[in-house]
Amino acid sequence: MFTIIARRFSRSAFCGKQITIAYNNIDVVKNIQDREYDLIWKTIDSSRSDIKNTDLKKFKEAFGDDFHQTLTLVRNTDRIVATNSHVVFRPLDRNSDKENVVFRGKLWISPDVTGRQIEEITARQSYDVGFSVGNHSMAYATNKTLASYKNMTGSTEFIEKYYVSHYDFGDLCLPKTLNTEGITVKNARDVPDKDILDYDADIFKYERSKYVLGQLRDDFGRVAYNENGDVIGFGAVSTYPSGECCITPMYADDIRIARTILKSILEEMTLNTEKYWRLKLYSHDHFPESYGWIRPFLKTMTHRTEVYKLMCDHKQLGMDFSKVFSPFHPSNCPM
């Protein structure tokens, strides 16, 4: 049995030492508080270039009780050996015929861990929030974790492949001959919530309104309109203390709109190589333009590396990938 407790950290176990994990030497924490958030940051996230130390709290606030973060620690210590997060996406009211989607986000297991039971432990945590075969479950899997995913869901079916590209800011440019005719771009902070949420609801038919508004209005966000005042796209670039910047997301009716939105954002940011390090872009293989749309902004060749497959155990998607040039952050959303 798992021990689920309110944590009082006592002695610390030294990270870096190999340890065999089993059911009888762990504590599992589900009610994450400030102390645990700090521990996650110090142990895992502070070494990442694409996260802020306030992000986990922000995600929890956005998704509320539908955001499930689980820590596995060595018993009676503050040594984290695994983190496992899930989001339960509920259909919007106008899509009440659809079922909830359980999305497994970031699963991290310490490289110091040995023993087969850690996989069983994290799988049990996923089952506890409804992530299982036939239960409308989705997750990102790497080539290394495909076997584990199959054991949990009985399937290796995937919707599409996801890729990542990194471009140094010194290799970026602002295109001089971009056709922006008929497109008006506004700061996401200056437009009604409804404009953003209605457009998102046509693409992703599940509730995530607080998350979307927060992401679009956090750093550099834009909403694009046509001449009739209809929303035709939105996009954002998130910036991090490391100097890394990430396009999360870029949704648009067509490639010309996506490029116009990015141009507006980069004009405000300026291509300051002392302030910004590199631009990160997630793309997918649903349609070729998800990869090549950024080309006018580059002085170098486009490139990408496969990082995930979006796994799914059902076909009732409620998702329109044809407008997704770049998704929201894969730790929190399937698109």
TrEMBL record:
Pfam families, A to Z: DUF1248
Highest taxon of source: Eukaryota
Residue span, DUF1248 domain: 24-203
PANTHER family in UniProt: DUF1248 DOMAIN-CONTAINING PROTEIN (PTHR21471:SF5), GNAT FAMILY ACETYLTRANSFERASE-RELATED (PTHR21471)
Protein name (database record): DUF1248 domain-containing protein
UniProt source species: Caenorhabditis brenneri
